[in-house]
Amino acid sequence: MERPRSSSSLGPDTGDLLLVAAGDSAAVQRLLSRWRAPVFAVFEKSREPGDAAEAAAAVFEALFRTASRFDPATPFPAWIWSFVAKEVERAPESRLPAIPPARLIESTAARAALVRAAVGSLPPGERSAFLLTRVARLPAPVAAAAAGTSETELLRRLVRAFTALSASLAPLLPQHESRTAPEPGGAAAP
Amino acid sequence: MNCDELRQRIVDPGSAATGGHAPVVAHLQSCAECRSLARTFADVERLFGASEKAVPPDDLDERVRQRLGRAPAGRLGLLLDRRFLAAAAAGILVVAAAYLLRPRGTPASAPPPPREARSSSAPPGPTEAPPPDILAVRSAPIALAGTPVPEEEKARALALRPREYLEFLAALSFLDPFFPETPSAGAPNAIRPPTSPEEIAQRIAEWEEAGASGRERWLGLDAAYGATDAARRSSLETRWNALSGFSPDERAGLRRLAARIAELDEKRRSRLVAEIRAIANAPRAERPWRWRASPFARTLTGQEVASGERLLLFF
Description:
The complex is a heterodimer of chains A (about 190) and B (about 325).
Chain A: H1 12-21, H2 25-44, H3 49-65, H4 76-90, H5 101-106, H6 108-120, H7 124-134, H8 140-147, H9 151-168
Helix pairs in contact in A: 1-2, 2-3, 3-4, 4-7, 4-8, 7-8, 7-9, 8-9
Chain B: H1 3-11, H2 15-18, H3 22-30, H4 32-49, H5 60-69, H6 75-80, H7 82-100, H8 115-120, E1 134-137, E2 140-143, H9 151-159, H10 163-174, H11 197-227, H12 230-242, H13 248-262, H14 266-281, H15 287-293, H16 302-314
Antiparallel strand pairs in B: 1-2
Helix pairs in contact in B: 1-4, 10-13, 13-16, 15-16
């Protein structure tokens, strides 16, 4: 990305993070209001809402505490998503719960719990690759930069993530006639 | 295209826009396993795409504030920690109460004897209170018990541009349209190195107070500023000099005004820049009402409006 020529060409997020570093609490609030929903959404797909809120808060804490180290030449999205990726990868792999199929049919909460557990059970690198591209909707190069890896490795991780999710979320997926049983990658369908 | 390449292609979020689908189609036609896998992957994708939008809990901001409030002595933590603000307010009240309730006829605070006189006189008696841990040169605290700053580091700190100036640069840039496009010539002096003993003490105190990360940032900002082209530096310095007569409150207002401009998207900002430049070029008597009547100023706080007006009338 092109390096900004002067501060006057900075985007609102970059400008606000510089103001945060200078002690401007209103800039903190503005960044929170713009980013709280997308950041929370990523964690909410792999953790209970309370834990997801804590993880999102940890991301903002890290973002604001390191504001003084932020280089305005760095694209702000890459910067904030790198904190998200770190926090996503910090969580240990969770175990898939055994939810009876009947419960999955009748309960939205049970289905949501299975989806969270399935994502949470992915190995950290695969989990962050999946969440950054499928929930945060980042393009592969941006997601790879945020996760601190190459684009090729990110795509490999995505293939493994999709393969594992295909197995762990099988009870929620439509049944096709010739579905090939994917390699579960360690995750067992309930 | 082999199976691995195909699978990487179908999970790539940008693959739809990539083009060159012919090899993908050819592979899917010939490989039943990949065909099935592609369909399953699409189902997984749909499962996440169809889910409801997550709404952050109402207390998320509060959680962030609580975390930042745990800062050991960070400026950011203190800014956001309500307990700190409450304690500070309580402290002010206690000091005010002590002042108001002091015995009549006793001065609120007797001026202390000069330091030299104290050091050369007899040792303090048993009833004399010990010296305070913290003294202040202007508003910058100096810890007496701290390790003295080595001479080499002092020289480094004294060679830097003022931290306040460097930290204000982003705001100064966003305030571009308020300043004349061709700055008036004049020797910039507000960012000259400290020379008087008081200025030197102030600078060393700031350096100590900055902490390791603050010092690193200061050095970084100074180096980045040094690399800026001379004309831009001169223009910024002229502007900073113009602000030297502004009170801290007015500067805070300008910082907030800059932040309000910063949060606009590029298109709105460009439009605003043109509007403000037009006001700045209008006859002096017209500027205040034109500024106050502008759609942007109507969204600002009184302090932000007043600071902008002061700047518009300055030149």
